[in-house]
Amino acid sequence: MASFLRVRPVTAAPGRPPILPLARPAVGFTAGVGLVAALAAASMAYGAMAIPLSEVVGAYTRFNGSDAHLVVTTVRMPRTLLAVTVGASLGIAGLLLHMLTRNPLADVEVAGINAGAATAVVLVAVLGGASSLALLTATSLAGAAAGGLLVYVLGALGRDGPTPLKLTLAGAAIWALGESLTSGLLTAHERALDEVLFWLKGSVAGRELDLVGPLLPWMAAGWLAAVAVAPALHVLTLGDDVARGLGVPAGRVRLAAGATVVLLAGTAVAAAGPIGFVGLVAAHAARALLGLRPRWLVAYSAWIGAAVLLVADLAGRFLAMPEELPVGVTTALLGAPLFILLGWRALR
Fold first, then answer.
1. Whole domain around residue 55: which residue ranges?
2. pLDDT tens for residues 163-222?
3. Which of 34, 78, 103, 279 is deepest in the core (most CB within 10 A)?
4. What is the pLDDT of residues 276-329, one digit of tens each?
């Protein structure tokens, strides 16, 4: 383990106390995992075709080739697994962005990371299409890195450096620029529009295990990296002077955290398209439960992000029946009011 990850414990940090402090984080985490499991079961059981839970279990214990069993194994199980893994990745990425920027409004959508990834993927589609998952993933990662870096550079301009307000404004600008570029590219190339329109709204529907499997190791690597870097990143929230006194190299920690965010967000976008506000909700909910416990915050952000995306996907199946809403639309319906509330509180 790198030396900058071994830091002396810090007992005080700025910020509001947790709303619902948990004396035993392990108990809360176990309950959270149970909630995710229950939501995953509901995800495999409910939709346009309701399937009893006994049949969901039977699809794996006594498969008989019936329509219900085929729907569970080939359609809903990959969709559910993708929602869990992408939700966990986005939840952790949102938490790291909060700690990295000290900005309560930070999220992969607001930070320009989603916009960069989506613009890069659309550009590749226009130029000839993403011929493989490897190319799609690499393109998404490169776009996510470019979008996040551009936001940081713009937010760092001026005498005060990268303040939370400047980063938020820069992120909004890059978000708008990315939307304009993707709309322009797709308007000029209708073939590409047909290929990526539903993906651009953010969706876990219609994906297969062949997509989830290759991306899962990359997501898992991001989860482990987040657990490793979280304590040192937490020290940076106390200020660079305190971090130096504790032997934490600020530059390397920020670089490691930024690379982890790009890895998590880039693979999530490659798998499900740009989905916003999951990280915003997960990070704030985790802090409300725990306060400032870095590694537990990562674990809680993971299960909360997974739960949020499962709920959003289930809601999307019923809000517009017999059609479905892309999960990116339902997460926006959930997250946008929170974003407005947080912005109002920050400007009071």
1. 20-347
2. 767 777 888 888 888 878 887 877 777 665 666 766 677 777 777 777 777 888 889 999
3. 279
4. 889 888 998 898 888 778 899 999 999 999 999 999 999 888 887 777 888 888
Residue burial 34-43, b: 16+ Cβ < 10 Å; e: rest = ebbeebbebb
Residues 6+ apart with CB under 8 A from 118: 143, 178, 182, 200, 269, 273, 274
The amino acid present at 263, given as its one-letter code, is L
In a domain, 104, yes or no: yes
CB 220 within 8 Å of CB 269: no
Angle at 69 (CA atoms; ends 68, 72), nearest 5 degrees: 90
**Count of structural domains within the chain:** 1
Domain CATH for 259: 1.10.3470.10
